[in-house]
Specification:
The complex is a heterodimer of chains A (about 475) and B (about 180).
Chain A (H helix, E strand, L loop, with lengths): L37 E5 L5 H5 L1 H45 L1 E5 L2 E6 L5 E6 L3 E8 L1 H5 L2 E8 L7 E7 H15 L5 H6 L14 E4 L2 H9 L2 H19 L5 H25 L3 E4 L5 E5 L4 E6 L4 E8 L8 E8 L19 E7 H11 L11 E2 L16 E4 L3 E6 L4 E7 L5 E6 L1 H5 L2 E7 L6 E7 H21 L1
Antiparallel strand pairs in A: 1-2, 2-3, 3-4, 5-6, 5-11, 6-7, 8-9, 9-10, 10-11, 12-13, 12-18, 13-14, 15-16, 16-17, 17-18, 19-20, 20-21
Chain B lengths: L26 E2 L3 H28 L2 H27 L1 E4 L3 E6 L4 E7 L3 E7 L2 H5 L3 E7 L6 E6 L1 H14 L8
Antiparallel strand pairs in B: 1-2, 2-3, 3-4, 5-6, 6-7
């Protein structure tokens, strides 16, 4: 049942719905530029149900093996597993018949389910970003998952799994073209639909993060730095403690693996990190060693940008840049598991010069090396004895910016057009000192906070921020 | 409220709860909100005291009495805080945004543009209904946005809801 990706025929009737085509590898035809806002109903790849249930299948087989091998004997056990496989394949065949997606008007509909039929309608205007993800197993089969980030609650995610890679990339181009309000964007992305191997970029990468830097940066994190201590502790326990059970050793090994697991996962995730820009100004972020991801984000969808200087990276002069895109935190895998990989990075590790050059792609007109920020008044030292030297905030040309954090310094930038609401909060101690904190709320991210400003400045900023936010909204 | 710059950059002597004196007409919430908050505290006290009484009867320890004293002291403090907080609530409808202020100890002021509104909730719990009050909540795409106006007369709540719903405009950002 492994069918390779067919090259798409350019003249598939895009406007006529073909509900029950027994074509095993349906491919959305590329419509002529500026064609109708329709994609006829297509099936997902036949392997999708198998890939989706592979985790459950492994668990079931493991559960059967536990008892089955003893009770049934090798021959019966093999038969049982075989029967299970046949059942799964049968189920997949049935399930596949009900899978499908189509675009009607400005809505993407995803059909799924056998017993509980589910049709999920995603308004294309609500799409925040689209990611093409290839988990390891799917990558072996040459398949990819299209992950649509929709703003809102965690249940609004819409994974489209699985499609042949070329088809996924092509479909993403077409969906983005439909999403874009300017019809000029349609021909630009429609031409990518013709490539069977659309993996190669149609534009050069603007930046490539050095894999060595990724590895070194991830080893310069607290969990990894403390791992030698943990290992020493275990070895010491082994030497000195004679009645030391195997269980304790195993649990300690698990603990070490747990601490070192997160950095290793990040290294795998941020491997081969490339940043590019499409013709219509979208950011293209691609990374991953085992599970590869390719993400397209429109700068209008970026709610806030955070630059972080971790303490251990200061010697290297490194920083990382993360983006907040509404709905991205709620990204969920096809098998319902919450995605553990971080997909919010603009730069996993970079020097200040690189970041200065690349951050304007995400938030135009911002120079993170020279922000006109003002410090807090000296009396804030009563409330933040050490931190008050770090605290700074200001209204820059591009957006509201605030710096906080003594050890892990963090700069948050919110473009004016993305401001949702503004709050001024004054605690009892702040009132004594005539200080207040200004919060700028954004969708899908923690609010940016300008801590300990003078009360006059805080209310002045609150008014100015609402004014500028309104002006920026009307511009868009 | 039709001036082009309703907020001067440096307001003259802004009070902690009135940042823009003379320019914004604050509306208070219903005075019955104070009684509602007091009733909540009284119910809470009654439940906790009943628990203390049960413990005292069953085990006849001194701790029940101490507990009851602690409950009373804490709830008197709570009542004072709740009454002050309830009195401090105020809201103002400006041309393009809703202002909500509340709090005495920690003072909050929220500015929520109508354009950012996702939906409006009018909530009235059983106790609120008994007092003939309702709460209007304005939701934006940001979870941290805090625009809740409690203690409104039902007619005023409906008016505010309708006005907010009418003023919301499509920002066209998919949010």
């Amino acid at each position: 049942m492994t069918s390779p990706a067919h090259p798409p025929e350019p003249a598939t009737g895009a406007a006529t719905p073909v509900p029950r085509t027994p074509d095993p590898a349906p491919v959305p035809g590329a419509p002529p530029a500026g064609g109708p806002l329709m994609i006829a109903r297509q099936r997902l790849h036949p392997l999708s149900p198998v890939l989706k249930s592979v985790r459950t299948l492994i668990i079931v087989i493991a559960a059967v093996s536990w008892r089955g091998l003893q009770n049934l004997g090798t021959k019966n056990y093999a038969l049982a597993v075989l029967g299970l496989l046949v059942l799964v394949l049968l189920y997949s065949a049935v399930a596949w018949r009900f899978t499908g997606y189509e675009v009607i008007g400005r809505e993407l509909r995803i059909h799924e389910g056998v017993l509980f039929r589910r049709t999920r309608a995603v308004p294309l205007e609500r799409l925040q970003s689209i990611e093409v993800v290839q988990p390891v197993l799917a990558r072996l089969a040459g398949l990819a998952e299209l992950r649509l980030d929709v703003a809102g609650a965690a249940k609004s995610e819409a994974p489209l799994a699985f499609l042949p890679l070329a088809e996924a990339t092509a479909l993403r181009g077409r969906l983005l073209a439909l999403t874009a309000r300017t019809p000029a964007a349609v021909p630009a992305s429609a031409e990518t639909a013709g490539e069977p191997a659309a993996e190669q970029p149609d534009e050069p990468d603007l930046h490539r993060v050095d894999d060595n830097d990724v590895v070194v940066s991830q080893f310069l994190t607290p969990p990894v730095m403390f791992t030698p201590l943990a290992v020493l502790y275990i070895v010491g326990q082994l030497m000195l403690n004679s009645d030391f059970g195997i269980f304790a050793i195993a649990s300690m090994a698990t603990a070490v693996a747990g601490t070192i697991g997160a950095p290793v996962m990040r290294i795998l995730n941020f491997w081969n990190f490339r940043l590019g820009r499409t013709d219509d100004g979208r950011l293209r972020i691609r990374h991953g060693l085992l599970e590869t991801r390719s993400q397209l984000v429109a700068p209008q969808r970026i709610q806030s940008l955070t630059v972080t200087w971790p303490l251990l990276w200061r010697g290297k002069g490194w920083l990382r840049v993360t983006l907040a895109v509404a709905g991205q935190n709620s990204a969920v895998n096809a098998d319902g598991q919450r995605s553990r990989a971080e997909t919010d990075r603009l730069l996993p590790v970079a020097t200040l010069e690189t970041a200065r050059a690349l951050v304007p792609l995400a938030v135009p007109g911002i120079d993170i090396g020279a922000l006109p920020l003002s410090p807090v008044p000296a009396r804030a030292a009563w409330l933040a004895p050490l931190r008050h030297r770090v605290l700074a905030a200001g209204l820059t040309d591009a957006g509201f910016a605030a710096v906080d954090g003594l050890t892990t310094r963090q700069l948050t930038v919110v473009p004016y057009a993305r401001i949702q609401s503004v709050r001024v909060v004054q605690g009892p101690w702040q009132r004594r000192l005539d200080l207040a904190t200004v919060y700028v709320d954004v969708a899908g991210a923690t609010p940016a906070a300008a801590v300990h400003r003078t009360i006059a400045e805080a209310f002045g900023w609150a008014g100015e921020l609402t004014e500028r936010a309104r002006a920026a909204r009307q511009e868009v | 409220m039709t001036e082009p710059h309703p907020v001067p950059y440096a307001a003259p002597a802004p009070g902690p709860l009135d940042p823009w004196p003379g320019e914004v007409t604050w509306r208070p919430v219903s005075p019955r909100l104070v009684w509602l908050e007091l009733t909540r505290v009284v119910i809470n006290t009654a439940v906790l005291l009943a628990a203390c009484a049960v413990v005292g009867v069953l085990w006849s320890t001194r701790w029940a009495v101490i507990g009851a004293v602690v409950v009373v002291v804490l709830d008197v403090t709570r009542a004072v805080v709740a009454v002050r907080a309830a009195r401090s609530y105020g809201y103002a409808e400006r041309e393009r945004d809703l202002l909500v202020r509340h709090g005495r100890m920690v003072r909050h002021l929220s500015i929520v543009p109508y354009a950012r509104m996702q939906f409006v909730d009018v909530v009235a719990g059983p106790l609120e209904r008994a007092f003939g009050l309702a709460t209007v909540q304005l939701h934006t795409a940001a979870a941290a946005s805090d625009a809740t106006v409690p203690g409104l007369e039902p007619a005023e709540a409906a008016r505010l809801r309708d006005r907010l719903a009418a003023l919301g405009e499509d920002a066209g950002e998919g949010l």
